[in-house]
Each structure stands twice: as structure tokens, then as C-alpha cells.
Specification:
six-stranded antiparallel beta sheet, two-stranded parallel ribbon, elongated
Length: 257
């Protein structure tokens, strides 16, 4: 249930500044969100109220709200108002061969996993091709629902070599890192290739993550190989589109003339 935001101390727009009014207003509202003055689920004042509070036009207010929505900070709901969204978890998983557990631990967030399946299955064509094995060969399927601060965030299906099953059954896969377990087994991904694509959740993923069937998710697909080039891990992870974003650091190569 959303909470109506309490009245906030009025902040003024600097009319002598060259910075556009809408940009100033966006900064004021963003600072209230960043500081926790406006929390996830809080309703912002209505457009007319913001016009009166900051003595600006409705066009200025709407432009500020449009930009805040584009940045994922608010959700504008027709007929209801504008609400502060839950913060998205920034992840660098696209560019580094790390697991979600390590990535979030470095950011001070608590990750818990619910193991939904842990068993040997026959490799379907996509999995077999990725793992470079025959179609129908046995692989281990580890299916986990990943929760961040106890909210469903990611549905991950990880495929591993068949011989890993006994060790995985003894491991703490709810609170620990799969990569740490793999390291202990001498199975260490050293190279990998990851891709991200947007798609609709579909019935199964939507039910697990608590979304609508047509809600957007980000599908992260990854293949990890060891130092000999042998595929040792393939996974498909469905991340909630309203809770996740991926970060990639870019470096420009030297340009020779």
C-alpha cells in the first residue's frame, strides 16, 4: 500500500539562475528522494500543488516529472498520481565474471536464494550447444529464486557439469556463493561471454517474480569456461525490469593516426 507523502518544507527556485526551471525542480525532487525524505511508495504532490509550491508553470512541472520517470526514480500512474519507485540495483555483471552474490555483497545488499530445483536433467539443444555436449546428455540444473532484501528479484537457471551434484547438495546455496563452491571443487570460470536482452516475463517467470505476464524482464545469459576452454557453467537469469539495471564501464582504445 502506498503512503501519502507528508508536507515537505518548501524549497524555492532560483529565478536568477541560468539553469532551466524544470531542471532545478527535478533537482529539488531528486534530492528529496536521494535523502530518503521521499521514500519508495510515497506520492509526490500533484501537478497543481507543485505549480503553487514552486511558483512555476505546469509545463515546467511536467517536464521535471518526465525526466524523473525516464531516470527510473518515479512512476507516473494515470488517474492516481506520481509515486517514488523502489531503487534499482545497479549490477556490473555484464562486464565482469562475478556472481550476483559477490556483486551485491560489494554494494552492502543482502542476497538470499531459494533453491527451487537441484537435479540432473537431460540437456536441451540450447544448453547442449553452449556446454559443448551431446543433446540429451546429463547436466545439473540449479534453479534459484534470488531475493534482495527479501523481495523477489531474479529467477536464475544454472547448468553445471553432471559430476558437481553431490557437492552442490551439501553446500549452502541459499546464503552462500555458487562460485565459491565451484572454486572449492576446482571448477573455476576464468573467461565468459554474457548477453542481455529485454523481453516479456511470460507466465512462468511472472508468477515466480510476482509480475504481470507482460511485464518487462532483462534476460542475462552467460557461458563460463575454465582456463582450458572447457564450458563449466551456463545460466539464464531473468531480472525484474523495474528493479534492475546493468552498468558497463567503457574505455576508448588509443587511436593512431
Amino acid at each position: 500500500m502506498t503512503r501519502r507523502a507528508r508536507e515537505r518544507p518548501q524549497r524555492t527556485i532560483d529565478r536568477s539562475s541560468a539553469i532551466p526551471f524544470y531542471h532545478q525542480l527535478k533537482g529539488v525532487l531528486r534530492s528529496q528522494i536521494d535523502s530518503g525524505e521521499l521514500k519508495s511508495g510515497d506520492a509526490l504532490p500533484g501537478e497543481l500543488r507543485l505549480c503553487e509550491q514552486y511558483d512555476v508553470s505546469r509545463t515546467v512541472v511536467r517536464q521535471a516529472l518526465v525526466e524523473l520517470e525516464f531516470e527510473g526514480l518515479v512512476d507516473r500512474q494515470k488517474g492516481r498520481g506520481t509515486f517514488v519507485t523502489a531503487p534499482k540495483t545497479a549490477q556490473s555483471l555484464v562486464q565482469t565474471l562475478s556472481g550476483l552474490h559477490e556483486d551485491l555483497a560489494a554494494r552492502g545488499l543482502h542476497l538470499r536464494s531459494v533453491v527451487r530445483r537441484l537435479e540432473r536433467v537431460r540437456a536441451e539443444p540450447v544448453v547442449a550447444a553452449a556446454m559443448q555436449i551431446q543433446e540429451g546428455a546429463r547436466v545439473v540444473l540449479l534453479e534459484r529464486l534470488r531475493l534482495i532484501e527479501d523481495e523477489p528479484w531474479v529467477l536464475a537457471l544454472t547448468y553445471l557439469p553432471s559430476e558437481t551434484l553431490p557437492t552442490l547438495r551439501r553446500a549452502d546455496l541459499e546464503n552462500g556463493s555458487l562460485y565459491s563452491v565451484m572454486d572449492d571443487m576446482g571448477i573455476r570460470p576464468t573467461r565468459g561471454r554474457r548477453t542481455v536482452e529485454a523481453r516479456e516475463a511470460g507466465e512462468t517467470v511472472a508468477e515466480v517474480l510476482g509480475l504481470r505476464r507482460t511485464s518487462p524482464v532483462l534476460l542475462l545469459t552467460s557461458l563460463g569456461t575454465d582456463r582450458t576452454g572447457r564450458p563449466v557453467e551456463y545460466f539464464e537469469a531473468f531480472h525484474r525490469g523495474d528493479r534492475s539495471r546493468f552498468e558497463v564501464d567503457l574505455v576508448r582504445a588509443d587511436v593512431t593516426r
